[in-house]
């Protein structure tokens, strides 16, 4: 009886996970969710769970998910996390954000990381990433190595990053093929996708397009 009650409780947990890679419009999705007064997880607290992700310690991530309703970016945007989340929260909704193509995404993330951790022109080198103090020292390097598995002498290898991006998107779409009602694929450059997202979330549109946010331009 008690086990049945626990399962019922689990099924009633309606969570929202944005599982698109960083630099695919996730900040814009965050703004949309905030406009609907949906409680979002604290990104600073979430990103330090990166080691839990590469140890495949999803229990720590599940525990963090108790803190809010919607979540985005690391560790939720990382490969395979969505599978564990869907198993733990079978009633959750998943938003896969994508760019027009893999090259557009690569150019965006390499530019973003250059502004964060290098000279704003070139992609960061190994020592720059290892010494970066974002969240904690070395997280930037761990992120590149654990997610993309690129060689130290070519950390931003274009073909490897683009392949990883495409593999993630394809795996997400294939995983939810049998349950398409749980997933929506969104490109924030498409106006129509704003209304599709509102319908997916069962919320009344508040704008006539995505309230665009550009995190890169805010970096100083």
Question: Residue share in helices?
Answer: 40-55%
Sheet with the most strands: spatial strand order: 2-1-3-4
Secondary structure tally, helices: 11
Q: What fraction of residues sit in β-strands?
A: 5-15%
- Major sheet size, sense and barrel closure: 4 strands, parallel
* Rg, Cα atoms, Å: 18 Å
What is the overall silhouette?
globular
- The class by helix and strand makeup works out as alpha/beta
Question: What is the count of β-strands?
Answer: 4
* Uncertain parts: 1-12, 216-220
Order of helices and strands: HEHHHHEHEHHHHEH
Characteristic terms for this protein:
single chain, 220 residues, alpha/beta, 4-stranded parallel β-sheet, 4 strands, 49% helix, disordered N terminus, disordered C terminus
